[in-house]
Amino acid sequence: MEIPFYCPLLPEIPFVSKTICLSVGYFLSDSEALALPKCRTLIYAMKPTKRKRVFLTVEQKFQIVSRIEAGETLTKWSKEFGVGVSTVGDMRRDSEKIKKLNATSNGKSAEFRKTMKCANDEELDNVLCKWFI
Questions:
Q1: pLDDT digits (tens, 9 = 90+) for 78-117
Q2: How crowded is the C-beta side of 26, counted as CA atoms within 13 Å?
Q3: What is each CA distance from 18 to 52, 55, 76, in whole angstroms?
Q4: Is residue 16 part of a domain?
Q5: Contacts (Cβ under 8 Å, ≥6 apart) of 55
Q6: Which residues lie below 8 Å from residue 74, measured CB to CB, with a gap of 6+?
Q7: Gyration radius of the chain over CA positions
Q8: Chain centroid to CA 52
Q9: Domain count, the chain
Q10: Domain membership flag for residue 88
Q11: Is residue 117 part of a domain?
Q12: Is there a domain that residue 17 lies in?
């Protein structure tokens, strides 16, 4: 276990060897960073770049799931559709739901539908659908 040391410029932050632990929202200027005695490896906090939220249709999700099951990589599909790798992994985990939803929906609704929520009372939903049509 390494003993933390305290920099005279920033006494409230303990440093461990060459690692600098920055609290959220705390930035060092270049002059402050160069003045730190033992710390030459610095982590410069940049402006956070947040990915725009992407909503995929059920058809696109089904396409991704079928390609993954065929042996293609998660990374390839995450880059192609602009979503995170963990999102594609979640789709793989929920592949049975996606397949079922794609099979039960007619062609048009799968193209536009983006959520996988189903009605709480399916019987009531079917009766209302028949009444509406």
A1: 888 888 888 899 989 988 988 887 777 766 666 666 666 6
A2: 12
A3: 34, 41, 36
A4: no
A5: 114
A6: 68, 85, 88, 89, 92
A7: 25
A8: 10
A9: 1
A10: yes
A11: yes
A12: no
Residue span of the structural domain in which 86 resides: 58-132
The dihedral through the CA atoms of 29, 32, 33, 39 has a sign that is: negative
Task: Give strand pairing partners of 14.
Answer: 6
Quote the CA–CA distance of 83 and 74 in Å, as a whole number: 10
DSSP state letters, 2-18: PPPEE-SS-TTSEEBTT
Task: Please give the single-letter amino acid code of residue 70.
Answer: A
Over the stretch 120-131, which tens digit does the pLDDT of each residue have? 887 887 888 788
Residues shown for the chain: 133
Q: What is the token pair recorded at 95?
A: 């592949």
DSSP per residue over the chain, as a string? -PPPEE-SS-TTSEEBTTB--PPTT----HHHHHH-SS--S--PPPPP-PPPP----HHHHHHHHHHHHTT--HHHHHHHHT--HHHHHHHHHTHHHHHHHHHHS-HHHHHH-------S-HHHHHHHHHHH-
Output the pTM of the full model.
0.50
Task: Name the amino acid, one letter, at 76.
Answer: K
**Which neighbouring-strand residues pair with 19?**
16
